[in-house]
Specification:
The protein is built from 3 helices and 9 strands; from the N terminus they run H-E-E-H-H-E-E-E-E-E-E-E. With about 180 residues, the chain is an alpha+beta fold.
Length: about 180
């Protein structure tokens, strides 16, 4: 093996290590509606964050306001973790972090809805276009915090910004997020 190939292997290994995370967070998903309250345990496990090229592909589909294309782009990606709500486990296709103050914001997305809250209760049914699940984890420097869960969502661009449109009117809060050591 030449010096050049050894350096190439080391650089490739370093790049993979930078994206490999093995993070697990627990939280409680809590929702309130008139006359009803519910909560369920949540586990979010991230094997690795999304590669830049894959992120660019997904963002391009979102910016094109192409919901079926966005869902297709996400579905084509490898599983990079999972989100478990109660006893249902759904693969993560997108996990991205960015620094915020003394902590970070982690966004995770699935290529299928997690469940449907609200709508025509009881047993809310799927609605065309709400094909993704999304969670935002707002963490401090100690890897604890709160966030939001959009169990059935579609994404679009409005005024140049990427925005979400939730299936249900009720906001699902993620509370007591904590990193599992």
């Amino acid at each position: 093996m030449t010096i050049k190939s050894i350096v190439g292997v080391l650089l490739a290994t370093a790049a993979l290590s930078a994206q490999s995370t093995g993070l697990t967070f627990t939280a409680t998903a809590s929702v309130s509606a008139p006359g009803k309250k519910a909560s369920v345990p949540v586990t979010i496990h991230i094997d690795r964050f999304i590669a830049d090229a894959d992120r660019d592909t997904v963002i391009a589909a979102v910016k094109a306001n192409d919901q079926p294309g966005t869902t297709k782009a996400l579905a084509a990606l490898p599983d990079i973790g999972y989100i478990t709500l109660g006893d249902k486990r759904t693969p993560l296709k997108y996990a991205y972090e960015r620094p915020t103050g003394d902590g970070r914001l982690i966004t995770v997305v699935t290529a299928q809805p997690l469940f449907f809250v609200g709508g025509a209760e009881p047993q809310a049914k799927p609605k065309k276009g709400y094909d993704l699940g999304l969670a935002l984890l707002v963490l401090n420097g100690q890897n604890t915090g709160d966030g939001e869960l959009a169990p059935a969502v579609r994404v679009k661009v409005d005024g140049g910004a990427i925005v979400t449109d939730d299936y249900g009117a009720e906001k699902v809060r993620l509370v007591k997020i904590a990193k599992v050591e």
